[in-house]
Design brief:
This protein has 129 residues and is an all-alpha fold. Helices cover 53% and strands 0% of the residues. The radius of gyration is 24 Å and the shape is rod-shaped.
Amino acid sequence: MTQTLLRRITRTARDPVKLRRAIVVLMSAQGQPAVDIAHLLKVCDDYVRDVIHAFNERGFGALDPKGSGRPPKKVDEPTRTKIRAIAWCDPRFLCQPFSVWSLTKLRAYLLHTNVVAGDQYRDAAPDPA
């Protein structure tokens, strides 16, 4: 039963991480040693062992990636919409002395007009010098 589900995952998985993990577990279930699996998939044997141990502990949930690989969004959707509208607008209509936004100028304007809070952009870009 487990091998049938793993085969289905290897055929239908769209996420490459989930696919690779399912192949590791399937090959292990078929009796392949971790070193051989690592060599075939071009990964280190510690990765193969970690995947197998995680699958034994958590089951199919261990095949899913831990996250999207990026931190959660810090800006909500209404704020994103407002930022997009400002970015597409000619800065002269907003009483700015230039005709094209740069990322630094847009960031400064968004902070100055309180569209975004300072802590939302703390890691996104350095302060303009």
